[in-house]
Automatic annotation (TrEMBL):
SUPFAM superfamilies linked: gp5 N-terminal domain-like (SSF69255)
Database matches in InterPro entries: Gp5/Vgr_OB, Vgr_OB-fold_dom_sf
Protein name listed in UniProt: Phage tail protein
Residue ranges of every copy of the Gp5/Type VI secretion system Vgr protein OB-fold domain listed in the record: 34-107
Origin species: Candidatus Nephthysia bennettiae
Length: 236
């Protein structure tokens, strides 16, 4: 049984399998066509994928297809491969079915976008497990957020009147906040404790005023000499 393809890659009536018979007939498909990813197991480790086409039998896969990424070079570039069953846009080098290229990725009714912002005020990168990089461009509410699937978050907030850099755990009990508007740095632990360790170094606290307050016991201990200096020293 054989197939022939018209210029749009549609069924014309007779089909041959891509891997076994296209090589001999040199059938050509010009333009682009849709495909669905079937395999990522590239034996050469080049980031290539195999796809199936809606106009061929589901048992027929393409040759290994290279991916046109935003940036590629020796041990560098954007490494963002599609998943199996993702829809892709495929073109063929000089129309040759033996040399497919993935030139784009497509959302559809089954695989929908991670975010919908018709005003283009939010853009997002989201991984399969749910890790996110979010770019907010709302007027007066600009910022960048890096968030893990588990809810841990780093946020660079350029909101007018509230510019902050914050690191927050998923429970919101632990946080580090650098507030550019207030000129403050806050380290908070609502549970557990905060530790500062410099095993082979020194910890220095320098400020106009230093306040140490404990709602319970307070312990100051030195394995060596303890020195307290001040214009006035009061112990109550």
């Amino acid at each position: 049984m054989s197939q022939e393809l018209d210029l749009r890659g549609l069924l014309e009536g007779r089909v041959k399998t891509l891997e076994n018979e296209v090589e001999g007939t040199r059938q050509r498909v010009y333009g682009v066509t849709l495909g669905t990813v079937t395999s990522l197991l590239d034996p050469k480790g080049l980031g290539r994928v195999k796809v199936k086409f809606p106009w061929l039998s589901s048992q027929v896969d393409s040759a290994w297809a290279r991916i046109a990424t935003a940036w590629a070079g020796g041990s560098r570039g954007t490494y963002l491969l599609p998943e199996v069953d993702d829809e892709v846009l495929v073109a063929f080098s000089h129309g040759d079915l033996k040399h497919p290229y993935i030139i784009g990725f497509l959302w559809n009714d089954t695989n929908r976008p991670p975010e919908f912002s018709p005003l283009l005020e939010r853009r997002e990168l989201k991984s399969k497990s749910g890790h996110r990089v979010i770019f907010d461009d709302f007027t007066g509410l600009q910022g960048l957020t890096l968030e893990s699937q588990g809810g841990h978050k780093i946020k660079l907030d350029d909101t007018i009147g509230g510019m902050q850099i914050s690191v927050t755990d998923s429970s919101h009990n632990l946080s580090l906040v650098i507030d550019s508007t207030q000129g403050t740095i806050s380290i908070t632990s609502k549970v557990g404790r905060i530790e500062l360790n410099a095993a082979a170094g020194q910890i220095s606290l320098n400020a106009t005023s230093v306040d140490v307050h404990a709602t319970g016991a307070l312990s100051l201990k030195g394995d060596g000499a303890v020195t307290i200096n001040g214009a006035t020293v009061r112990i109550n």
